[in-house]
Design a protein that fits this description.
The chain is mainly α and 389 residues long. The chain has helices at 2-24, 27-54, 59-68, 74-86, 90-114, 131-136, 145-165, 170-183, 189-211, 215-229, 239-265, 279-314, 344-347, 360-387; strands at 319-320, 358-359. The protein has 14 helices and 2 strands, in the order ααααααααααααβαβα.
């Protein structure tokens, strides 16, 4: 217990120290000054190559890559990841959720530190057929979220399948590796670095989540500090919003699994395509589960929109809302700004606006997706147990 508390405290203190130090030394801007010109030069000089590639257009390829982009979209982790939990593969679902959260945070941090421009459009052609693709196009361009998630998620899925089946057939391993390489053949180095790191720590992380001490408290503090540790981009982008959402997802999953592991998520639970969980029962789970988590997501958002402004006003914290609460758009509540004696680094953090007020949308988004994720691993499995699904 003491050793666990010690490393948790050291980890959180380390993040706090980095927040204060990096803000006081303006590390983000200095790194951007060093790296951005080099990256921008390569974006400009590489544009003719992109235009040459885009000469070979085909509707099938447009549809294919548009579909693949869904791997990093909100509908993907709202639908696919819950199905993994409910199919009986709880460890795979936990690991892919936390790995995707790590990819999302790492990739978006690098994006907003470098603030590298995307190739100009036109002449470069962008496919933005869906709302998610339009939002992704507003992010900075390096590294690609699609690249990171494709490399890491497909690589970890292959690792899990080979470990779970314990298949020693060399030809099957080679075929699986070849398929993954085919999928990610045009991806970058950062994804492989993150995947390699995750494969070295995933067992320790999972052991901590399912049987550690102070798990929920530690993860709540970690989630909060990661919001503050996020770098401020040169210009606002949706990257911080995407990270906030998945930060909430990771917290909700960890908190829910830690409480209900021995009930619903241990290694002996029924798995899909077995007599204990036939396809018909799994379809029943989908019919019950998907509407339930969507209702929880809506209710969590509504509750957060009502509670957070009240709490902020009670504590005298100035707030504003960029989108969720119309009456707070462009306004600052609480004490007058000239009376606030906030430190310099606080004003630069992403959770605060340029006027030093707290953007309440950050808290709303975090609680909304925390509630969604919690329902996936706690509320909905309880309904399955009650309905005997």
């Amino acid at each position: 217990m003491e050793s666990i508390s010690l490393w948790q405290g050291l980890a959180l203190c380390g993040i706090v120290s980095w927040i204060v130090l990096s803000s006081s030394l303006d590390v983000t801007r200095k790194l951007r000054t060093l790296v951005q010109p080099w990256v921008s030069h390569h974006v400009i000089t590489g544009t003719p190559i992109i235009l040459q590639i885009q000469k070979y257009q085909h509707g099938f390829l447009d549809a294919l890559f548009s579909g693949l982009s869904c791997v990093v979209s909100v509908p993907f982790y709202t639908a696919f990841l819950p199905l993994l939990f409910w199919s009986g593969h709880g460890k795979l679902a936990r690991q892919m959720t936390l790995l995707m959260s790590l990819c999302d945070y790492s990739g978006n941090c690098i994006k907003d530190v470098v603030s590298a421009p995307r190739p100009s459009c036109p002449p470069v052609r962008r496919i933005t057929a869906t709302k998610d693709e339009q939002e992704n196009a507003l992010e900075y361009g390096l590294p690609s979220s699609h690249t990171l998630n494709t490399v890491c998620l497909s690589g970890y899925l292959l690792h899990y399948v080979l470990s779970y089946t314990q298949n020693e057939d060399a030809s099957l391993k080679f075929a699986g590796f070849a398929v993954v390489c085919l999928i990610v053949c045009l991806t970058g180095l950062v994804g492989f670095v993150i995947l390699s790191f995750w494969l070295s720590v995933h067992d320790y992380v999972d052991s901590f989540v399912v049987s550690g001490q102070n798990v929920t408290t530690f993860w709540a503090a970690l989630s909060l500090l990661l919001l503050f540790a996020y770098p401020t981009p040169e210009l606002p982008t949706p990257s911080f919003e995407f990270h906030t959402a998945f930060d909430g997802v990771a917290f909700g999953i960890v908190a829910g699994v830690q409480q209900t592991y021995h009930q619903f998520h241990h290694e002996s639970v029924p798995r899909i395509f077995t007599p204990q969980l036939p396809l018909s029962a799994f379809l029943g789970r989908m019919l019950v589960g998907i509407p339930t988590i969507l209702i929880v997501k809506y209710c969590s958002k509504a509750l957060a929109k009502w509670i957070l402004p009240i709490v902020s006003n009670t504590l005298g914290i100035p707030i504003k809302s960029t989108s969720y609460i119309p009456m707070l758009k462009g306004s600052v509540t609480g004490k007058k700004m000239e009376e606030l004696k906030q430190s310099g680094y606080i004003k630069k953090l992403p959770v605060f606006s340029s006027q030093g007020s707290f953007d309440v949308d950050t808290g709303i988004r975090f609680l909304q997706y925390s509630g969604l994720a919690w329902s996936v691993v706690d509320l909905v499995p309880s309904l399955f147990s009650y309905l005997r699904l």
